[in-house]
Amino acid sequence: MLVSEALPQVPVLEGQGHVLFSGGPVQPNNVMILYRLSQEPSNQHHVFDGVYLGGDMGTLEQVLAMPERADSFRAFMGYSGWGPGQLENEMKTGSWITLPADPTIVFEKEPPRIWPDILKSLGEPYSLYADMPIDPTLN
Predict the structure, then answer these.
(1) Under a CB-based contact definition with an 8 Å cutoff, are residues 46 and 35 in contact?
(2) Which structural domains are found in the chain, ordered by start?
(3) Could you tell me if 75 and 18 are in contact, meaning their C-beta atoms sit under 8 angstroms apart?
(4) Which residues in 46-64 are b (16+ Cβ under 10 Å) and which e?
(5) Secondary structure E strands in 7-134
(6) What pTM was estimated for this model as a whole?
(7) Helices within 1-139 (DSSP H only)
(8) Quick check: 73 pLDDT over 80?
């Protein structure tokens, strides 16, 4: 699905080919936008190093109106969430692999290459999983 299909009320999106990614099962009818901006906006949540989260259409229109700038975005339908203490417990049990945040990976890599490239960068034993099909039964 394209962002323009989910947000037909935003005229600047018309004819744009920006993909709307799945963010998770929570609030699947809401669009959340991850921005990389050179100037901090007043109405977005700061995530890390020039990256902000929000849904302000004015900010989106600004990014799209000036494509030569380094500003960019990724749009997501829904998000993932955890109950109180759940994520902390999962971190303690080693259920997550963490890496330093890198806006280049988030905004400049082709989305299908992000996961495999990260796994390869971690070396063994993770690189083994880099080229697995989405459905492991097809392996």
Answers:
(1) no
(2) 1-80 (3.40.1740.10), 95-134 (no CATH)
(3) yes
(4) ebeebbbebeeeebbebbb
(5) 20-22, 26-36, 45-48, 51-54, 72-79
(6) 0.82
(7) 3-6, 57-65, 86-92, 103-108, 111-121
(8) yes
